Amino acid sequence: MSATAKTPTTAGTHRGPAPGRFAFLTASGGGQNLSLIGALVVVLVLFGVLNDNYLSVSNVQVIAEAATITGLLAIVQTVVIICGGLDISVGSQTGVASVVSAMAFTATGANAYLGVAAAIGVGLLIGVLNGLVIVYGRVNPTIATLAGLAAYKGLAQLLSDGRAQGYVLNDGIFVFLGRGKIAGIPVMVWILILTALAVHVLLKYTDIGRNLYAIGGNDTAARLAGININKYLIAVYALIGIVAAIAGILLTARTGSGQPVSGSEGLELKAITAAALGGAALKGGKGGIGGTLLAVALLGALENGLTVQGINSFWQNVAQGALLVIAVVIQQRRSGERAIGLPA
């Protein structure tokens, strides 16, 4: 969190999701999210025309399941961006949790509950550690979590000796999490939906949510208003750790073993891109879960479409980077802020 006060005009302003019948999908700017819906429709129609199987029920399910882990991380990334922070280490945290869940499962005689509990405990510990470093170490969130990106990736590799660990597909709990369905919808997708609804309610309808927007909008004004910023920041990073652990557990359930790197590398870029595309202002104080989910759906549909068409996967990274730049450029233009090096 920067110690520099932000523009006074934003002090105390709740710039959260807009009210209305479709507030959940139009949070953080109806126009922008309508544009995301339009872009998603274009992508679906384009690849649907190019490949008859693209819009099949089975492939749509593949898109949804693949987007679940990214979606979970994008949701909590949105929360931390709203309050003026950032977490670049979410992918590595997911890798640690995946390894721990599988190793604990094996070490406890194939006890899935202990495997899940161990992963969530480690995720909570990592999240709190990130928060403490940022708050009491006075380290910029970007730098602190960039260090975490490397450190937690190394930790996952050390714990697993750089190899996939355990085998969980003979356990009913992990099979249910990774491949089960409720009302025809994959359990993984249900977990994403419930997480999104819970965080949306938290941001829109509680004092905690209003305080998070206030901290991101103007941290000095928030502090003067009596908000304990340190407590909120540590709690937000703890939340990220828990959700990243859940993502790691789902990664284990989906792949059948603990993955130190494969499946989790690059998730931080996807999460940040989805949050920014969804309307979360990287300077804090603005954003919503509806926009983030739309952006996750767009990224998932685009990635799957490129894969189905046999396009080199390296182009997916190019597309993600380009979309992130586009999202930030749009934010800068809308804010009316003077471009660096150009006259006012």
What does this structure look like?
The chain is an all-alpha fold and 344 residues long. 69% of the residues lie in helices and 1% in strands. It has a two-stranded antiparallel ribbon with strand order 1-2. Helix 4 packs across helix 11. The protein is globular. The two termini are 27 Å apart.
Jot down its keywords.
single chain; 344 residues; mainly alpha; 14 helices; 2 strands; 69% helix
Strand content: under 5%
- Molecular shape: globular
* Main sheet overview: 2 strands, antiparallel
Which range best describes the helical content: under 10%, 10-25%, 25-40%, 40-55%, 55-70% or over 70%? 55-70%
Overall pLDDT metric:
88
Distance between the termini: 27 Å
Number-wise, the strands total: 2
Indicate the low-confidence ranges by residue numbers.
1-23
Which sequence of strands runs across the widest sheet?
1-2
Number of helices: 14
Q: Order of SSEs, N→C?
A: HHHHHHHEEHHHHHHH
What radius of gyration results from the CA coordinates? 20 Å
Summarize the structure.
By secondary structure, the protein is an all-alpha fold. The chain is 69% helix and 1% strand.
Strand and helix map with partners:
Elements: H1 23-26, H2 30-50, H3 57-82, H4 90-107, H5 112-136, H6 141-160, H7 172-179, E1 181-182, E2 185-186, H8 187-205, H9 207-217, H10 219-224, H11 229-255, H12 267-277, H13 289-308, H14 314-335
Antiparallel strand pairs: 1-2
Helix pairs in contact: 2-13, 3-8, 3-11, 3-12, 3-13, 4-5, 4-6, 4-11, 5-11, 7-11, 8-9, 12-13, 12-14
